[in-house]
Design brief:
By secondary structure, the chain is α+β, with helices and mostly antiparallel strands. Helix content is 30%, strand content 28%.
Length: 64
């Protein structure tokens, strides 16, 4: 029973998450030889102020 956790900045739409879930599930089924029903994808939206890289909060950078 594969469980794939996807952590990313908040802001993706329902449609984007649905498409990503389908693509991830398809890849896991093909490569890991499991079934779609046994494959779980868990999305965790992270606020930019809760994510830092190199000691700098993502919310404090000028990147989109």
């Amino acid at each position: 029973m594969p469980i794939i956790r996807v952590e990313m900045w908040e802001g993706r739409t329902h449609a984007q998450k649905a498409e990503l879930a389908r693509a991830i599930t398809e890849a896991v089924v093909t490569i890991a030889h499991t079934t779609p029903e046994a494959t779980f994808v868990v999305f965790e939206d992270i606020r930019k102020e809760d994510w830092a890289q190199g000691g700098v909060l993502a919310s404090d950078t000028t990147k989109p």
